[in-house]
């Protein structure tokens, strides 16, 4: 079934990587992943992390639902010592879907339940949770908010894809108002309040989400935005710097982290024969962060590195590196074998995408050898995820390795890795994109189907997948 991933041995994978000029390394010795690491004075028991993976399964009011709690019990049981909790909106109108979590005082009890069940299942399985770090990702979805988008800037490539009136299908244009400077000033306070809620609930850290072209990510590239949040580097980074400062002042004992795009690139679209092709853009690029302004394919980490330096001075303790846009450039954020039904086929060998993650992450880690950097984009490697992870940790290319899609199919991967057993072949993520397809399915009463892994977490998600398929409106 696989088109690109056909590797029975590490040597075969390495030979392909070499032929494509990629810097993929594999280690048979996985013990590098078992070594503890200190993050802001806290011991994290191993180098394995679960990335933020939202299940789109909250209650309509933004509290965790039954499936949300189940996911965190499974993550807790799994043995990774860093659990990077999923996106939770700081205001209800900043949610990316109708079942995304919300982090505010009203949802505090639900979040406390989630954290408690996660930690308890970790203790039951592993005896001790003192070296387990659990965080929560605070977000505002900006242009991807429901029911209506909130723009930080005009992006000539994304505005025509941003529906501002569902009835008429009208999309954003130069006349669509942006969030004002006052709106953003007020939003800073909502972030501080959400951080306070997360802290009181007992999360070990919060993540100020600046990735995947959601609001704080868009601000980083808002060259054309007027006023104090746009234009210069200082202005584009004002929101994050100020909000980190405020949170550190108000909550000096709360660890602050950030998941950040280090490379946006540009949006892609479906071309002939369904292959992804880059959107037509004009140069120099004025709304892409971490990207060579004259060549969208080339990451330029100068500004991301400058910002990380500033954030570190402000006390940010850990950086989770990501890139791309799940709606506009899925092959960049998560290299895949098969796209979801409405998505384009990967325009490059997925191993090139994996290598792009590894190289950019290495550049950041080498610039900040003492700052724990969490790497992304490993799931496509299937049975070799942890051989690559171990080699990258061994070589100082990354401190901690995060697992995204593969954590839905095999949440207990760390148990296998730490006990020296291969992964369970029947549950290794094959990057078929069922999880993304469910995430994009909105045609039920709640306006959102829950997501998980239909092929490998069958009992729960196969019926949900079947229902979504049977009830799907015809695609036009
Ligand atoms: C179903 C699904 C939910 C996700 N939820 C989040 C999220 O809440 N926050 C976030 O930063 N990234 C989210 N991501 C992106 C992943 O964390 C990860 O960056 C991506 O899948 C690439 O890593 P992988 O190759 O290990 O899957 C999600 C991805 C998927 C497929």
From TrEMBL:
GO-annotated molecular function: FMN binding; oxidoreductase activity
Keywords tagged on the record: Flavoprotein, Oxidoreductase
Domain of life the protein comes from: Bacteria
InterPro entries on file: Aldolase_TIM, NADH_flavin_oxidoreductase, OxRdtase_FMN_N
Residue ranges occupied by any NADH:flavin oxidoreductase/NADH oxidase N-terminal domain in the UniProt entry: 35-266
PANTHER family: BINDING OXIDOREDUCTASE, PUTATIVE (AFU_ORTHOLOGUE AFUA_2G08260)-RELATED
Descriptive protein name: NADH:flavin oxidoreductase
Organism: Tautonia sociabilis
